[in-house]
Design goal:
Blueprint: H1 2-36, H2 46-64, E1 67-68, E2 77-78, H3 82-92, H4 94-112, H5 119-142, H6 145-178, H7 183-193, H8 200-239
Antiparallel strand pairs: 1-2
Helix pairs in contact: 1-4, 1-5, 2-3, 2-4, 3-4, 3-5, 3-8, 4-5, 5-6, 6-8
Length: 240
């Protein structure tokens, strides 16, 4: 009975922390939106809500289409789910980006469920926001092609740094605890694909850092190439 109560207590604590994190990120996005947005789009208008829902659904589907990379353990899989989130947030602002990122994860959970007791899903949300939020805030302040390049570069940098520290500090140890294995066993999975990986630090350095960097570069390039085309096709036509 005491073990069951402990599990319930831990789950409630995790849920409470997750909710507070979501609220905190939305408040940060809202503050940034008030300070930097030059073009104002109301979140409560029908077309804004419709676009957020549409891009969240597309992002959730893309989240289900992932593939491993040769330099990282198989549980690190690359997906392009941040692409529609970035397009959404570049047009509608930082709050819409955070909401879209959150809805993406919720829809994915409804479609597929969780295999990580929601730890991986929370991590996906946080690391996604570390990419989307800085890029969106800076882009809204500059609003130019050059600004888009700088903003996407900043987002990639933030995601790479935050994602790497977050993996080392929370995600990898939490996965080890969740599956009842030592951290060394996860390091060993990395060593099988990359002999340079010998401990947690080298796992992060040679697997997590290049993984986040590669994802950021690919998604940034696609966003840069597609954003204006999508904006002309969907957003402005909707306003007419």
């Amino acid at each position: 009975m005491s073990t069951l109560l402990e599990v319930i207590r831990n789950n409630l604590q995790f849920f409470g922390v997750s909710v507070l994190i979501c609220i905190g990120l939305i408040l940060v996005a809202l503050g940034a939106e008030i300070l930097v947005m030059k073009r104002r789009h109301r979140l409560n208008t029908a077309h804004s809500i419709a676009f957020i829902a549409m891009f969240s659904a597309i992002a959730a589907v893309l989240m289900l289409i992932d593939f491993p990379l040769f330099f990282a353990p198989s549980f690190y899989k690359l997906d392009l789910s941040e692409l529609p989130v970035l397009i959404c947030t570049f047009y509608l602002g930082p709050v819409s980006g955070v909401v879209c990122e959150l809805l993406k994860v919720v829809i994915k959970l409804l479609l597929k469920g969780t295999t990580t007791a929601f730890v991986g899903d929370l991590s996906n949300f946080l690391i996604g926001c570390s990419f989307v939020l800085p890029a969106s805030i800076l882009y809204q302040a500059i609003l130019s092609k050059k600004g888009a390049v700088i903003s996407l570069s900043l987002g990639t940098l933030f995601m790479t740094v935050f994602g790497s520290f977050f993996n080392a500090w929370f995600l990898i140890p939490k996965f080890a605890e969740l599956y009842g294995m030592p951290v060394e066993a996860i390091v060993g999975m990395g060593a099988k694909v990359n002999t340079s990986i010998t401990d947690l630090k080298t796992l992060v350095l040679f697997a997590v850092v290049p993984f986040n960097l590669l994802k950021g570069i690919i998604v940034s390039l696609l966003t840069f190439l597609l954003y204006k085309r999508v904006e002309r096709l969907l957003f402005r036509r909707k306003q007419c």
